[in-house]
Write a structure and sequence with these properties.
Helix content is 69%, strand content 1%. It has helices at 3-20, 22-52, 69-77, 84-98, 103-116, 144-161, 177-184, 186-207, 211-220, 223-227, 232-245, 250-274, 285-292, 300-310, 314-328, 333-338, 345-367, 386-431, and strands spanning 121-122, 131-132. The chain is globular.
């Protein structure tokens, strides 16, 4: 058997194992159900960039359009920036259904358990005492990893507790079924919330941080040393995509390390240009947006092109059609959470490796003297090719086209593999 066939069989076996795992399927189905909201949220960002932004949108020429920005921001916030809570609820419902447990109650208790471990006060400059509020990061993609773990663990515990007859509060037969069921789960709900609340308190006492903050801190710690190595930028984008694969916003992980260094790099390039010398700092925010995350994290725009060219799956083609416009502006969430790519073994390898390949191409083009270092950081949201031209001239456009071609070639074998998986699933369904 050829290596390609062995590799494909291995990946399909892994996919089957994932499909039979009720925990991973609960996560996958949750993201699938939430996909429409993610797409709408990305459209809010896109409308903000193209219409109401005073730096990139039509509001440059029609200032009155800037008044629409709060509406577009609200669309994005109530969907993508608030995704953790509904994702927790959906994961818990799916898992409870597979365990024959109470679905809606599992969703509510999982959300409550997550909130019980989060900070409920914030410190404001000029105010002596903390005020009652919650940080936006609690609800957005930064809280997703902890939220998913909470949904899986709390739902498993809750469904098990509801099977223990001794802790059910029995009601007379004359009591309506809905009320009786509510009393039956009262003690399991209390026990689950007590466990999550106490865990959150003891964790903070032991570490000095809330659970979510601690996890992000330990993820960011090794990045300082990584970034300063010769292959640091490739390693950083590789790590960012790996976190995306787990459902964690990889960009948020690397941002605290990346952005200060990018700011220093663009400042050095600008100073060199003003002094009449050649800018030599490769890694800037414009470089990251134009080449490393061209079309979105993980080369998802290349996946869209490969899907249009070779996919026979109607579901994937439909999602690709919805994701093409955001993808052209560097917004990858409709594809990442729509296919979904999260915890998807079929697409894991190209999703993780595509951006490092893009980085290697752009770095090589710079090192041989073809691609100039940029002195203007193009804002996020500017469409591809245009952002490459503004930041790096026609050479930037040429490198982007090469990256798109190579990235599409990387994705094609895995799109074909997904076709065969769908055919196999359809054949098994007909045989059953």
């Amino acid at each position: 058997m050829a290596f390609g066939e062995k590799f494909e069989d291995t990946m399909m076996t892994i996919a089957e194992v994932v499909g039979d795992n009720k925990y991973l399927m609960a996560i996958k189905d949750a993201f699938t159900a939430f996909m429409p909201f993610i797409i709408i949220g990305s459209m809010g960002t896109l409308l903000k960039v193209l219409i109401s932004s005073t730096t990139t949108g039509l509001a440059i020429w029609v200032p009155q359009l800037a008044a629409l920005e709060p509406a577009f921001t609200a669309i994005n916030f109530c969907t993508m920036s608030f995704m953790t809570l509904p994702i927790i609820f959906l994961i818990a419902m799916n898992l409870a259904k597979s365990k024959n447990g109470p679905e809606h109650a599992s969703g509510v208790v999982s959300v409550a358990a997550y909130i019980s471990m989060c900070a409920t006060t914030v410190t404001v400059d000029g105010v002596d005492a903390p005020i009652a509020a919650m940080a936006n990061a609690t609800f957005g993609a930064q809280g997703l990893f902890v939220g998913m773990l909470t949904a899986l663990l709390i739902t498993s515990l809750f469904c098990w507790l509801t099977t223990i007859d001794a802790i059910k509060i029995k009601m007379p037969p004359s009591v309506p079924a809905g009320i009786a069921n509510s009393f039956n789960i009262m003690i399991p709900v209390f026990f689950c919330l007590a466990v999550s609340s106490l865990f959150g308190i003891f964790f903070r006492m032991g570490t000095g941080q809330y659970v979510g903050d601690f996890i992000y801190a330990i993820m960011q710690a090794p990045l300082e040393a990584l970034f300063n190595t010769p292959f640091g930028i490739v390693g950083m984008v590789l790590l960012s995509n790996f976190f995306w694969l787990l459902g964690i916003h990889g960009g948020l992980i690397v941002t605290p390390v990346r952005n200060p260094m990018f700011a220093a790099a663009i400042a050095a390039n600008t100073a060199a240009l003003a002094a009449g010398t050649q800018p030599d700092q490769i890694f800037t925010m414009g470089f990251w947006n134009s080449f490393l995350t061209l079309g979105g994290a993980g080369g998802t725009l290349c996946l869209i092109f490969a899907t249009f060219l070779f996919s026979k799956r109607e579901d994937h083609r439909a999602i690709a059609k919805l994701g093409i416009l955001p993808g052209l502006c560097g917004i990858s969430e409709p594809i990442v959470f729509g296919f979904p790519l999260v915890l998807n073994p079929t697409f894991a390898i190209p999703f993780i490796l595509c951006s490092p390949i893009q980085a290697a191409i752009a770095v090589f083009a710079t090192n041989i003297g073809f691609l100039p270092c940029n002195t203007v950081d193009v804002p996020f949201g500017i469409p591809i090719l245009l952002n490459g031209f503004i930041g790096h001239g026609w050479q930037g456009v040429a490198v982007q086209l090469i990256i798109l071609a190579v990235g599409t070639l990387v994705w094609i074998p895995f799109v074909l593999m997904a076709n065969r998986q769908a055919e196999k699933e359809a054949a098994e369904a007909q045989a059953a």
